[in-house]
Design brief:
Blueprint: H1 2-17, H2 20-42, H3 53-64, H4 76-110, H5 113-125, H6 132-164
Helix pairs in contact: 2-3, 2-4
């Protein structure tokens, strides 16, 4: 039960704190549009293998994922549209992954103080569900936070004393 809650919280944080959901939505919309454009542009081309919209959708996935297992379009316009899709689709796809992972792991470094307090409060409210390792991590985090705040107060006190001289 606690593990499921953590995964749900992890998922909510990814969606709320990163562009992942928006990038995936944009990627799906562009995939549908580019597949339609390629299918339409390749119609009537001699030797065209993209006979249905479903085949064009499959081609769109195979092309931007760099699998290279789909038959290429045959008309010049469809090839151009396909080339644009490959560059744009792979950039969005891999960019979404890299941006999400980076944002998720950089988030603790950019957290406002209120969010830190809320996280500690959340963990304190759910102490019974935390494992020994998680409790040790929470204690270590709180101890580090207290030490940091004491250093900040000392530095601010020294700066204030220096400003009065």
């Amino acid at each position: 039960m606690a593990r499921t809650r953590r995964w749900r919280r992890f998922y909510r944080e990814i969606v709320r704190q990163t562009l992942f959901a928006r990038l995936v939505s944009l990627l799906v919309i562009l995939w549908l549009l580019f597949a339609a454009a390629i299918w339409y542009a390749d119609q009537g081309g001699e030797g065209s293998r993209l006979q249905t919209y479903g085949e064009a959708l499959y081609w769109g996935i195979a092309a931007f994922s760099t699998a290279g297992i789909a038959d290429p379009p045959v008309t010049p316009l469809a090839k151009f549209i396909g080339g644009v899709w490959i560059v744009l689709g792979s950039t969005l796809f891999f960019g979404a992954i890299v941006a999400t992972v980076t944002a998720y792991f950089m988030r603790p470094l950019q957290r406002p103080a209120r969010q830190i307090v809320e996280t500690i409060e959340f963990n304190l409210e759910h102490l019974d569900a935390l494992s020994i390792e998680e409790l040790d991590l929470l204690k270590s985090t709180v101890d580090t936070l207290i030490e940091h705040m004491e250093r900040v107060k000392r530095l601010r006190g020294q700066q204030a004393a220096g400003a009065h001289e």
